[in-house]
Write a structure and sequence with these properties.
Blueprint lengths: L3 E3 L10 E4 L7 E8 L2 E9 L1 E5 L2 E5 L4 E4 L5 E5 L3 E8 L21 H20 L4 H20 L6 H22 L7 H7 L4 H11 L4 H19 L4 H7 L5 H12 L3 H10 L2
Parallel strand pairs: 1-3
Antiparallel strand pairs: 2-9, 3-8, 4-7, 4-9, 5-6, 5-8
Protein name: AraC family transcriptional regulator
Pfam families: AraC_binding, HTH_18
Keywords: DNA-binding, Transcription, Transcription regulation
Length: 276
Amino acid sequence: MEVRYELVIPNDDLPFRLFIFEGREGKYKVTKHWHHSVEIFLVQEGKIDFYINNSHLSLARQDFVLVNSNEVHSIECPDPNVTIVLQIPGGTFKEYLGEDGYINFEKKDDVQNKRLADLVTSMFSIYEKQDYGYSLKVKSQFYELLYLLITEFKTESMDKEVLRQKKQLDKLSDVTQYMRDNYDQELKLEEVAERFGFSSTYLSRIFQKYAQVNYRTYLIDLRVKYAVRELVGTDHEIGEIAMNHGFPDSRSFSKAFKKRYGCLPSTYRKHTLANR
């Protein structure tokens, strides 16, 4: 499973990102990753399987999950769904961080949870219609949601192990960004570790313990992730795609792809194009 560091870029006209989850057609996976943003996934139709903090959450209609900064999570969508995603850049909460430099939120009772879900739904509806003055309205609701998070959903204390994981993932963020920029190169563990002043043993250990994946698996998954984009976005040959993304040949790419998606690249491409 891939673990990657995501840079959250707000919509051009908003101080956050608000969109429909890209796995809406089903048969889709988002492999393990983390980021500094706070995310809310709110299911409108269908269901998705969410994995976070070693827990599995099956989210159905009107269910949502709160994802804090530096929480490793992954998603599987075997079936079609409509899921609203709200991504709030971590810097939004800089005035409310604890002494440790982090802030965490958690779901509360049904009444509070419904208030949050209704706000997210309303924000998306307004943004989607884009009537005259929509940006003012959606921003006003966004700040209402921030107030709700700070006053009703903020956790009072943070477990020491959770805090330790956040700090270690901060260290890994620079490493994984470098790997994302150079994933199609050889990228030996020893060379990457040396570049960032780590021993190979230490880098391997923090990958496994805090990102919950070993270095080699992360690298292969990263290559598959980027290869998928070319697979469904172009008519390039499978062998060409494999070479473009760091695989020695189409056979090694197909083996890695099937392990992660349960089918060959050609089958995945055919299914994806048929459902567009």
